[in-house]
Amino acid sequence: MRARAGHGHHSRFVERESIVRKIWGDGDMVLLVFAASAAEFALNRAVDWLFFTGVLPRDPIRRLFSTASHAQRIVFADEESALGALATIRAAHEAVERRRGTAIPDWAHRDVLYMLIDYSERAHELLERPLTAAERHELYEVFHRVGSGLGIAELPRTYAGWRIDREHHLRRDLAYSAGTAALYGQYRKHLGAWRYALLLHIQAMLAPDHVRRLLGTTSAEWLRPFVRAYALLARAGLRPLMQRLFVPAGYLGEVRSLDNGA
């Protein structure tokens, strides 16, 4: 694992050559991470926390873009700024806990962190190639520091330990509920019928088998060649045109800002 460059005040939170910067500097990969995460958000047994503030259920697509943008900024920040941003997020969670009078479960925090790790790996494999063993360890090391900065307890120390715990969390913490149906209703409302269908296919392609079973969807491996064709066309300079086709006009600004997040 490569050490982070620099020391002191201006050291980077994530090394410039890190695979994590490559993934989170690519707007299309970030979109895939959050498209897939939207399925697990909806299935999580702690989904009631999303409904407590009401922000995410009112416009879950915009909220996911906002979360993606915050995560992207942390990846590209210097060490001090990144740790400050993580402390701010932790304080926001604690404020919500005080309003509700109960704590967000530690396992729910781990679930969110775990899906970002898992779908980062899956998005890179889909658009580029599978991560090497060293890159997987590097990905986990960065997100372990993110989790530590958020005060998340009981994080596995290694990628191998995380992989086992990830499977355990998937089996224990997900269930189809009224909250799931409500969020998916909002996804459909804000995306429209055919874009919503595309979201379901992307989720079916990226999600673990257990998630697909809970949602009642089948694998969408047939879509992979089309996604790779999209990636080639994007590199050929057609990304703005395709974004206008695939993204509702109201979200186009947020999507394009992800391309510039680095």
What does this structure look like?
The chain is 73% helix and 0% strand. The longest helix is centred in the C-terminal third of the chain and has 23 residues, at 224-246. With 262 residues, it is mostly helical. Mean pLDDT is 90; it is low at 5-9. It starts with 18 loop residues before the first helix and ends with a helix. Helix 2 (27-43) packs antiparallel against helix 7 (106-127). The chain has 14 helices and no strands. It has one domain. It has helices at residues 19-24, 27-43, 48-53, 55-58, 60-75, 79-100, 106-127, 133-149, 159-173, 178-191, 193-206, 209-215, 224-246, 252-259.
Major sheet:
none
Number of helical segments with 4 or more residues: 14
Query: In sequence order, what are the helices and strands, one letter per element?
Result: HHHHHHHHHHHHHH
Shape: globular
In percent terms, what proportion of residues is strand? Answer: under 5%
First-to-last CA distance: 22 Å
Could you tell me the mean pLDDT? 90
Helix content: over 70%
- Structurally, how many domains make up the residues? 1
Low-pLDDT residue spans: 5-9
